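Note to self: the last two entries modelled the partners one at a time, which told us nothing about the interface. This time every component goes in together.
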Amino acid sequence: MNQETPAESSAPLEVHDVSVAYHKKLVLYGVDLSVPTGRLVGIIGPNGAGKSTLIKAIMGIMPLSSGWVKIFGKPYAKNCHRVGYVPQRESVDWDFPVNVMDVVLMGRYGHMGLGRRPSAGDRDIARACLEKVNMLPFAQRQIGNLSGGQQQRVFLARALAQESDLYLMDEPFVGVDAATEAAIITLLRDLKENGKTVLVVHHDLATAREYFDMLMLLNMRLLAFGPTEEVFTPENLQNTYGGRLNILSEVVQIVGETKL
Amino acid sequence: MKGVARSNKAWPLLAFLGWFCFAPMAQAARISDITEADLLERTLRFFSFTDPSLRYALAGSMLLGVACGLMGTFLVVRKLALMSDALSHAVLPGVAIGFLWSMTKNPLAIFIGATVAGLLGAATAQAITSTTKHKEDAALGFVLAGFFAVGVCLLTMIQNLPGGNKSGLDKFMFGQAAAMGREDVLLLAGVVLVCAAAIGIFYKEFLVTSFDPAFARSSGLKVQIFHYALILMLAFAIVASLQAVGVVLVAAMLVIPASAAFLLTDRLPAMLALAAVFGMLSGALGSFFSFVGRNLPTGPVMVLTASAVFALALFLAPRHGILAKWWRHRMRTRRVQRENTLKAVYRVLEDEGFRSESVSLRELAEHRRETLESSEAAIKTLEHHGFATREGADFTLTPPGWKRACEIVRNHRLWELYLNHAANIPADHVHDEAEEIEHILGEENVRQLEKRLNYARRDPHGKLIPGLEDIHGAGARFLSGNAVGFGPPRP
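The predicted structure of the combined assembly is written out below.
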């Protein structure tokens, strides 16, 4: 308990000068940002801008070439139980022999010890989370027998079951029906109301302004970050989507190759 | 117990008599010596379990089936099946070096040598994928062939050493359950124990790292450790199984029982259990046939048994099986045919302005441009399902038949209207698609469509769309607009 007292005073997420290379090719270059508590943040940028890479780098799923990340003032490994993650839906094999309940219970694993079994309490939490996304009737369903929207709800329920303070979501709106999209956005706003911080990788500019109260414009570099009304300007969007940083990306690639 | 087992095993034995004719060429001379009486004698001897070497062979084969089934399950769900092949071939140089180390066929020395070689192979593959642009398939292919070649060379060298041709190492290629001793069985028991305990204790970790490694890492798990633990246990299972199955075919014992189990269940614990049982069964039958067939190599026989189990699962699995899929398809086709007949009857009634409630076979046949015989067959199916009653050449739809007919016509016309209005598809292009959609639309979709189309009553061709009242209420009365029709009289 007392280890969380100093953490409350630090930002949920602090990223300092983070660069990430993938197969020697630089994907993110010197990203600096600090996300305040209780915000709903959209990460926006064109394809290949490094949006997913950024959140994977934050969680240590991808190694950093430089820089550091702090979660509530501590390195990720120390505070991973305070982070919930929704990966891209295509990242897993939906034929895997698990049912909906099995997947949602995975959200509780971070709170159990190694080799421990989910308790009745964990099951209650998982059921409550399924209820929140209206998926409780499907608890015993094999995950491959669900629609795209339902699969996304399962992933969301799993993240909710993590009972975290910071949520990182990778394209939760891709391939879902309108009802699911509305349900997800309501859920995200609820999380925000409860003081959680939510980062969402989003690809749809049309809805970005409506959904998020802060925006991060990303295209290899962090081009803008701030309240939506300040960031969502034609100039910023032009910078992000229009002129790719061609010279920069070419030069850093050459630098990366000469290093090895 | 013994008697029951014997009678159960009697008929596959007879079936296998024929199969023996096609046994490997090298064995042909020996097998032709075996008379039927001899074979039965051997069967009796097998089930008396008096032979100690037989007991070891049987126990060992069953244990290896369990070990391979458990580890194979993780390989299959992680899509690492090729890994088992590479690893099993990569252990061969280790077998030879283990032998050279002790100069006897000491199971422990061979186990250690083979495990080290297997892990070296896995590490080589890993190094190739992470430092070059080659993907895993090429890396595994290289490791498989390269290590195997080294192993074959070493084994040949050993064969040429003084006394080397009696080493029994040649049995490691295709396996010989009968050559298993007490130590081999104890080793296998140890491996099964280690694998089962590790999976039992760290079940949830193995589950989440297999299903969603990125998520597992994000929640603080060391994914690599569990991956390497699985590879290590896999190497244990392979090496301990070599004596019975052989290097060449041990991969099949890992992949086939697990694949059969995958067809039969959607839960990992059930899949583990089924794969272990299938592996055990294949092991037992493999050692049995290897015993009664004298020097028949155990590996191929075990793999054939496992393949038979797989084939059965492939055909008979309740959800993913070929038979089940074929049956579902057949049921759907029949339902569509019935519904098309109902729709045709509706159309005939509609063309007559709903003046009568019965239709003659001839009218139906003319409408559908088919023979009287086809129409009669179609009506018989309707009768069979309680959708129609027949009197001579005329027939009448029952209330459930009328309801379903209205629903299908409504679905068809609603979908045509929807395509025409909402998707701007010309009215003469919408019929064919509606022919398919009409059978699929659920009540929920229909409600949405009706709302979207402002509860329109006429389709793009000007025909009336049957509404709820027509389906649940008085029937044709509303559609015809005059008093002649069927259904209960209106007050």
